[in-house]
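Students often ask why inverse folding is considered easier than folding. One informal answer: many sequences map to the same fold, so there is more than one right answer. In these notes we will look at a single instance of the problem. The structure comes first.
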């Protein structure tokens, strides 16, 4: 009787479900992301609130055409929103003897004439927001003028639509396209363009804070610097460049922190972001060298070569054809003469570049340097706290460099980027034959901001223990 009862119970008992490996991994990943979201609440909340408040302030207090290079950013966004970014160019010579490509676009005079434009440095525009931008009155004047179809550039109405890759102006062009569709005034159209730009910036930056495993507060502070928010809430392309850098750093740090072989989709995202960074500004290309610091146990040499090949192929097929067909660069001196000078006087040219780098902290605007200093103080304090919690015993300088390989690679990449910036300024903005021995003109404070997110890589240490992967690039072990 007992055996029969036991048999009945066993027959009626529901079978035990054994979870599959894929399901367990999915559940663990869900729990991990929930924890990550909880850790990100405070930094994200601080970023969203302070960035929104500052963006609203700048949009009200500073006119849309009060920015560095208004004759470039405004027309470039207009060209993309109206489908004129690939209008054929004409080859001309500028006043300094340089061969330049000039792109002519056609449209509403209330947009393309840029009435009341005021070319100022970003830090000065931030200061102007405290007193009010007098240029706003003139920029509003276009609302009272009748619209007519015109073509630019002309002798009185400059336009540079082809200095940067058109895709980088997508955030601004979305708002401007909506304004053209709704038939708003030109001033409101530029404001809608600024709004779409800052909203996409905030979306990317929020995602970056959530993805970043450590150093979230540092990244949030970089995102709420007044100069960062001003660039993001303007027609400038710089806000998008900074956001792409933050997203690249966060994604790289997240992948490295997982301590496993990189998956195909992760590599694809890193390659795509690296491509966008080069398209945005070539001088920031060296920061992708950080990818080489990933250990071979996570990212083998073979896979690095394949990824580099895909990246180069994208440049050869997409960016370089545009660059050599459409791109035009503004220069205030004869570039050929400066190239000849560099080859004839390499030591003097190097002294100008290095001297400018060493004197930057005392020559740049104090307001900007205070913002950079604030980021560095928070970074150092956070790094000290992180080092105290995660004590590591290293034996010699080689061991220390290996443990901090990502921070060291970031520092090296930043240094190379700065050297490229100086070389570009030396060629395009300075008459080297008559320039001072230890200083180059033309460096703007906003060039430093896209490099600041890379300090977050100092929180990521080398802990790779994964065995070298075997098999296909897109079928890595989990």
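Output (designed amino acids):
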């Amino acid at each position: 009787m007992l055996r029969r009862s036991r048999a009945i119970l066993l027959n009626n008992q529901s079978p035990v479900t054994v979870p599959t490996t894929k399901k367990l991994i999915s559940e663990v990943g869900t729990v991990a992301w929930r924890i990550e979201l909880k850790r990100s609440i405070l930094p994200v909340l601080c970023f969203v609130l302070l960035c929104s408040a500052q963006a609203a302030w700048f949009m009200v207090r500073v006119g849309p055409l009060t920015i560095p290079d208004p004759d470039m950013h405004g027309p470039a966004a207009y060209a993309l929103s109206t489908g004129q970014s690939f209008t054929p160019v004409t080859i001309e010579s500028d006043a300094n003897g340089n061969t330049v490509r000039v792109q002519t676009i056609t449209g509403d005079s209330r947009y393309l004439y840029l009435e009341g434009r005021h070319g100022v440095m970003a830090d000065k525009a931030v200061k102007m927001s405290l007193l009010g931008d007098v240029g706003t009155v003139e920029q509003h004047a276009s609302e009272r003028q009748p619209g007519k179809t015109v073509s630019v550039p002309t002798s009185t109405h400059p336009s540079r639509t082809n200095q940067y890759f058109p895709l980088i102006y997508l955030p601004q062009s979305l708002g401007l396209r909506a304004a053209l569709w709704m038939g708003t005034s030109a001033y409101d159209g530029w404001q809608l363009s600024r709004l779409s730009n800052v909203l996409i910036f905030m979306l990317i930056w929020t995602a970056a804070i959530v993805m970043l495993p450590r150093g979230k507060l540092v990244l949030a502070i970089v995102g709420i610097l007044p100069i960062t928010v001003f660039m993001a809430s303007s027609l400038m392309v710089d806000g998008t460049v900074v956001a792409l850098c933050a997203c690249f750093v966060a994604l790289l740090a997240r992948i490295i922190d997982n301590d496993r072989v990189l998956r195909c989709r992760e590599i694809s995202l890193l390659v795509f972001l690296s491509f966008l960074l080069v398209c945005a500004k070539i001088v920031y290309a060296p920061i992708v060298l950080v990818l080489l610091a990933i250990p071979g146990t996570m990212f083998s040499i073979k896979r690095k070569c394949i990824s580099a090949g895909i990246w180069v192929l994208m440049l050869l097929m997409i960016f370089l054809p545009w660059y050599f067909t459409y791109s035009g660069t503004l220069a205030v001196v004869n570039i050929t003469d400066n190239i000849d000078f560099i080859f004839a006087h390499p030591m003097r040219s190097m002294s100008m570049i290095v001297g400018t780098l060493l004197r930057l902290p005392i020559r740049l605007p104090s307001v900007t340097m205070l913002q950079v200093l604030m980021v560095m103080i928070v970074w150092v304090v956070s790094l000290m706290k992180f080092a105290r919690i995660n004590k590591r015993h290293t034996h010699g300088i080689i061991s220390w460099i290996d443990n901090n390989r990502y921070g060291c690679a970031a520092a090296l990449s930043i240094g190379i980027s700065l050297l490229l910036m100086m070389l570009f300024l030396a060629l395009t903005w300075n008459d080297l034959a008559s320039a001072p021995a230890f200083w180059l003109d033309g460096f703007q404070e906003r060039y430093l901001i896209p490099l600041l997110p890379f300090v977050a890589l100092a929180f990521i240490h080398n802990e790779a223990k994964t065995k070298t992967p075997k098999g296909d690039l897109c079928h890595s072990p989990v």
